[in-house]
Amino acid sequence: MTSHPSRPVADLFSADGRLKAIPRRPARREALLAHLTETLFEAGRDYREPEINEALLTVHEDFSALRRYLVIGGFLGRTKDGSAYRRQQQPGSPGGAIPAVA
Questions:
Q1: Which helix (DSSP H) or strand (DSSP E) does residue 31 occupy?
Q2: How many CA atoms lie within 13 A of 89 on its CB side?
Q3: What is each CA distance from 92 to 3, 22, 77, 97, in whole angstroms?
Q4: Residues 85 and 98: beta-carbon distance below 8 Å
Q5: What pLDDT score does 98 carry?
Q6: How much is the pTM?
């Protein structure tokens, strides 16, 4: 897995800041998800699903697909009951692991 995409994620967005399309290529999609995680969600904060949906709707209408990709990709963690989400520490980034929330 490479941490340097061939093109910047900025070209995935239109002039109004909306995502043109969710990339099909895994490396491009991963770069996008990392960008969205950094720009939309604060580290160390719990989010309810409606908050996640609202944030993702600001960039693309298919917020449920983006949310699913973020969870599957390990960018957002979700409690077993699905009531809370939290930004996850990505491998290779500073700060170490986020402690578990009771």
A1: helix 26-40
A2: 11
A3: 10, 24, 17, 11
A4: no
A5: 41
A6: 0.79
The DSSP symbol for 56 reads H
Res 65 pLDDT > 90: yes
Give me the count of residues in the chain: 102
- Separation in Å, CA 63 to CA 1, 49, 67, 91, 92: 25, 11, 6, 25, 27
Q: Which residues contact 86 (CB under 8 A, 6 or more apart)?
A: 44, 45, 46, 47, 76, 77, 98, 101
> What phi, psi does 66 have (nearest 5°)?
-60, -45
Report residue 5 as tokens: 């995409």
* Cβ atoms 51, 40 nearer than 8 A: no
Residue 5: its pLDDT value, please? 41
Instruction: Determine the Cα–Cα distance for residues 30 and 16; give it in Å rounded to an integer.
Output: 22
Cα distances (angstroms) measured from residue 51 to each of 29, 66, 67, 81: 22, 13, 11, 16
